[in-house]
Specification:
Rossmann fold; binds S-adenosylmethionine; Thiol_S-MT; methyltransferase activity
Length: 270
């Protein structure tokens, strides 16, 4: 791998520190007890990072998301790790009945609300629901959607650049698909993943410990697309998916530390 590609990540790291370091120091001076709460500290830092990066990252993935989300998302849509809620801008209001933005970083909720409201989804008419639990908390998700036991409520589950961050992604995604996604429902994802090129993967592993400090646990070394493809239903003998399609990002160089895969996976209907 060219060294210029391997070290290009330093620009992003420097930019993230520039955007979030001073506000975080000010916040610590204001509430020193934050130092005793590493999760809250990391979320505060990430909230400032995402103000600097969110729009650019959305712009960068716009073509893939238009192709992935707009023609496919329907019914009740659960967006895990919604960030500022950029996904809502790709939803077709004629086909989507409710946008459920799950985002444990509550400092991002006001952004979600304003982007969703501008796109026509509001809490007042129940077309918008913002959840502050983690994606692993399927019990809270189901109770927030008032779902009767054994009746998964979600038609479309979306993960945009989130499987890189959530703890135990294989267990969490399997639980979400099993318990929260309806039979015949779909998972749409767009993620940066572990590269199949050994030298790129080596650099992704080298940078992950530093990167995850700045980006609230985000890892560069997860083969999330493979985990999703290999997901198995119930007793673990059959594939979870009746239909699956995974593709890359047009024009993306192979020597990219942020190598993306997008996919549409349809759960078996019973
Ligand atoms: C890189 S951002 C992506 C945001 C958004 N999906 C987008 O594409 O603009 C990852 C998001 O995952 C959220 N996150 C972190 N831990 C999570 C968890 N356990 N469950 C769900 N989301 C989580 C972070 O707060 C962050 O907003």
């Amino acid at each position: 791998m060219k060294l210029s590609n391997a070290f290009s990540i330093l620009f992003d790291l420097r930019y993230s520190v520039q955007a979030a370091f001073m506000p975080t120091i000010r916040e610590i001076l204001h509430s020193p007890s934050l130092l005793l709460h590493p999760t809250a500290l990391s979320r505060f830092f990430m909230s400032k990072v995402w103000i600097a990066f969110g729009d650019g990252v959305d712009e960068n993935g716009r073509d893939v998301k238009k192709h992935l989300i707009t023609p496919n998302a329907y019914g009740v849509v659960l967006d895990i790790g919604a960030g500022h809620g950029h996904t809502v801008n790709y939803l077709d209001q004629n086909r989507v009945t409710k946008y459920v933005a799950l985002e444990p970083n509550t400092l991002m909720h006001s952004h979600i609300r304003s982007i969703a409201n501008a796109a026509g989804f509001t809490e007042a008419d129940s077309t918008l629901l913002i959840l502050s639990c983690g994606a692993e908390d399927t019990t809270s998700i189901l109770s927030s959607l008032s779902s009767p036991i054994h009746e998964p409520p979600v038609d479309t589950l979306i993960s945009i650049l989130t499987m890189c961050t959530i703890p135990s992604p294989q267990t969490t995604m399997t639980a979400l698909v099993n318990d929260v996604l309806k039979p015949g429902g779909q998972l749409l994802f767009y993620e940066h993943v572990l590269s199949p090129k050994a030298d790129v993967a080596w650099w992704q592993r080298v940078w992950t410990p530093v990167w995850k400090m700045a980006f609230d646990g985000c890892r560069l070394d997860r083969p999330s697309h493979l985990w999703v493809e290999e997901m198995q239903a119930g007793d673990g003998e059959e594939s979870m998916w009746g239909k699956s399609e995974v593709w890359g990002k047009e024009g993306e160089e192979e020597e990219n530390l942020f190598w993306h895969r997008a996919g549409r996976m349809v759960k078996w209907a019973v």
